[in-house]
TrEMBL record:
Catalytic activity line of the entry: a menaquinone + succinate = a menaquinol + fumarate
Homology family: Belongs to the succinate dehydrogenase/fumarate reductase iron-sulfur protein family.
Protein name: Fumarate reductase iron-sulfur subunit
Chain segments annotated as transmembrane: none
Pathway the protein takes part in: Carbohydrate metabolism; tricarboxylic acid cycle; fumarate from succinate (bacterial route): step 1/1
């Protein structure tokens, strides 16, 4: 038997025909444009007069949610309010809730969502300025101005790009606020039972469910200061600052382990799942929780 006629043990015997060619693999048909309904939450400042408006339009396979919002604003409704900038997931400004999940509108393909109706809502836990735009100032208020603005990457690099002798990759966090919105403690959906004394060494510090930090509708009132959790993003930034400036340990831990800090975290891990850049805020929070110092241990 020639080598050409040999088969692997257990494989079916096949006699090749003279001049035969491999059968072509059928290519999957190209995805076509579809007509979808885009359901957008509309409201004024603070969520006043909230409602949903539907927009029916043809969506191409390459269209992102942001592309579709731009089309609606230009062609149909110039009053639509949302925030965007880079269009390639570097700035984080277009974060919103898409079909109930925190995502970046610029890199979320409409047809990949697989639904005939795509629902768009603003991020939770941050005050609504109008429609899909939220006020990011409450988040940044807990990130001190003297902390490093541009920082090295959170995790070690996997390699040096081809043709580059040396480089520093900057951190992955794009400060989009998705983790703040997803956190059940911050957004008021925490339904875990109160921690018991046997839960952990920090259980005495863990509170019961806290209200969401959005101001009341048509009101300037905010939640009491002692009910506020500063949230995953500021605590992740604080942990990175601790790594850069160990000499400031006590000062930083006084914030991280203070009345608005890590003690409020219930370990839902929703913040890490929501992050579009692969940052794990929950790990940063647990790092702070395990540290000694700040006058709180």
């Amino acid at each position: 038997m020639s080598d050409a006629e040999k088969t692997a043990p257990g494989a079916p015997s096949v006699t090749p025909e003279s001049g035969s060619q491999p059968a072509p693999v059928a290519a999957s048909p190209p995805q076509r444009a579809r007509t979808l309904t885009v359901r957008v939450q509309r409201s004024g400042p603070g969520g006043a007069n909230a409602r949903f408006d539907d927009y029916r339009l043809s969506v191409r396979p390459e269209d992102s949610v942001l592309d579709v919002l731009d089309r609606i604003r230009v062609e149909t409704d110039p009053t639509l309010v949302y925030r965007h900038s880079c269009h390639h997931s570097s700035c984080g400004t277009c974060a919103m809730r898409i079909n109930g999940r925190e995502r970046l509108a610029c890199i979320t393909r409409m047809l990949a969502l697989g639904t005939d109706v795509v629902t768009l809502e603003p991020l939770r836990s941050l005050p609504v300025l109008g429609d899909l735009m939220v006020d990011m100032r409450p988040m940044f208020a807990h990130i001190e101005p003297d902390w490093g603005y541009v920082r090295p990457v959170e995790k070690a690099s996997t390699g040096v790009p081809h043709g580059v002798a040396r480089y520093t990759r900057l951190e992955n966090c794009i400060e989009c606020g998705a983790c703040m919105s997803a956190c059940p403690v911050s957004n008021g959906t925490d339904d875990m039972p109160p921690a018991t004394a046997q839960g952990s060494q920090h259980s005495a510090h863990q509170p019961t469910r806290q209200p969401a930090r959005q101001p009341a509708q048509d009101s300037d009132e905010s939640a009491p200061a002692d009910a506020m959790f500063i949230g995953p993003a500021p605590l992740a930034a604080l942990n990175r600052e601790l790594a850069r400036h160990p000499e400031r340990r006590e000062e930083l831990l006084h914030i991280g382990k203070g009345p608005h800090g890590e003690r409020h975290c219930r370990r839902h891990m929703a913040c890490s799942r929501a992050c579009p850049s692969g940052v794990y805020p929950a790990k940063d929070i647990m790092d702070i929780r395990m540290m000694h110092g700040g006058g709180k241990d």
